[in-house]
Design brief:
Blueprint (H helix, E strand, L loop, with lengths): L1 E6 L11 H8 L4 E6 L12 E2 L9 E2 L1 H11 L5 E11 L2 H7 L4 E5 L8 H8 L3 E6 L9 H12 L9 H5 L18 E2 L2 E2 L9 H19 L1 H4 L7 H6 L2
Parallel strand pairs: 1-2, 1-6, 5-6, 5-7
Antiparallel strand pairs: 3-4, 8-9
Bound molecules: the ligand N#Cc1c(-c2ccc3ccn(Cc4ccc(CN5CCCCC5)cc4)c3c2)n[nH]c1N.
The site of ligand JEK has 20 residues, from strand 5.
Length: about 240
C-alpha cells in the first residue's frame, strides 16, 4: 500500500518512521510519502488560507494550493481521505475496508478546514471520504492521519507478527476485548482469575467471551445494540 500525506506541517508526520508503520515500511508493506502543501503555493508569502465567505471566526484553507498538490499527488484509482470533525466515524470496519486499497492520499487541513470545493472537485473522479477519528475537536488533520495510517497499516497482511491477535481485538467482533493478565499470579494481593490458570481452554474461552460481553454492555452500549450499527456503504450514503 502506498500512502501520501499532504500537510503544512510535514514534520508532524515524523513518528511514521517509528514503531509499527516504520517496520511496515522496512518490510515493503507500506510506502509512505509526506508532502508540504506550501510547495504548491505561487506567492512569495506561500499563502494557504483566507477569510471565510459568509463571515465567521478563523480562516479557511484556499482551494488553489490543494488543487495543484492533489493534481500531482492523487492518481486515478487512489482514495482521498480528508480528516474533519464533520466526517464519517473511523471504525474498525472502515479501517478494514481502507486496508484493501492500493493507494490512500490524506489531505491534512488546518485553520477551520479546507474549502469544501476541494473534496467536491475530486469526488467527481475519485472516492473521497471525509472522516473523523472521534467526537472532539483537534487543531488539524495530522493527528488523524497518524491514527488512520496506524489503524489501517496494522491490518495489512504480514504486518502484525501474530495475525491471530487481530481477530481477538476490540471491535473486531463488535465487542470490546476481555481483560488481560500475566505473571505473577498474585500481585499486591490481587489474584489472576483462577479459570485462566485452569488449563481448561473451553472454560477460558467462555469466560473471556462473557467478560467481553459484560464490558461492552457496561462501557459501549452503542456497540451492544447491533441494530444501531451502520455499514461502510451506509456511511458513504451520508457523505
Ligand atoms: N479527523 C478529525 C478531527 C478533527 C480535525 C481534522 C482536520 C482539521 C482541519 C482543521 N481542523 C480544525 C477545525 C476546528 C473546528 C472546525 C469546525 N468549525 C466550526 C465553525 C465553522 C468553521 C469550522 C473545523 C476544523 C481540523 C480538525 N477534529 N476532530 C476530529 N475528530
Amino acid at each position: 500500500m502506498r500512502v501520501d500525506v499532504v500537510s503544512i506541517f510535514p514534520d508532524y508526520l515524523a513518528p511514521l518512521g517509528l514503531s509499527l508503520p516504520g517496520r511496515a515500511r522496512d518490510r515493503g508493506l507500506l510506502d509512505v510519502h509526506v508532502h508540504d502543501l506550501r510547495d504548491w503555493t505561487r506567492d512569495r508569502h506561500r499563502t494557504v488560507d483566507d477569510t471565510p465567505y459568509g463571515g465567521g471566526a478563523g480562516m479557511v484553507m484556499k482551494p488553489e494550493p490543494w488543487g495543484e498538490a492533489l493534481d500531482e499527488v492523487l492518481p486515478a484509482g487512489a482514495t482521498l481521505l480528508v480528516p474533519t470533525p464533520s466526517g464519517v466515524p473511523l471504525t474498525q470496519a472502515l479501517a478494514r475496508d481502507l486496508a484493501t486499497r492500493d493507494h490512500l492520499v490524506i489531505a491534512c487541513g488546518r485553520y477551520e478546514g479546507i474549502d469544501q470545493r476541494v473534496a467536491d472537485h475530486y469526488g467527481a473522479d475519485h472516492e473521497v471520504l471525509e472522516v473523523s477519528i472521534g467526537d472532539y475537536v483537534l487543531n488539524g488533520g495530522e493527528v488523524a492521519a497518524l491514527v488512520l495510517i496506524e489503524a489501517v497499516a496494522r491490518l495489512l497482511p504480514g504486518f502484525m507478527g501474530n495475525a491471530e491477535s487481530l481477530t481477538e481485538e476490540s471491535h473486531e467482533a463488535g465487542l470490546l476485548e476481555y481483560p488481560g493478565y500475566t505473571k505473577p499470579a498474585t500481585w499486591r494481593g490481587l489474584d489472576v482469575p483462577s479459570v485462566l490458570l485452569s488449563g481448561d481452554h473451553a472454560a477460558i474461552a467462555a469466560w473471556r467471551h462473557d467478560q467481553s460481553v459484560r464490558r461492552t454492555a457496561a462501557r459501549r452500549p452503542d456497540l451492544a445494540h447491533p441494530s444501531r450499527a451502520v455499514s461502510v456503504e451506509g456511511l458513504a450514503a451520508h457523505v
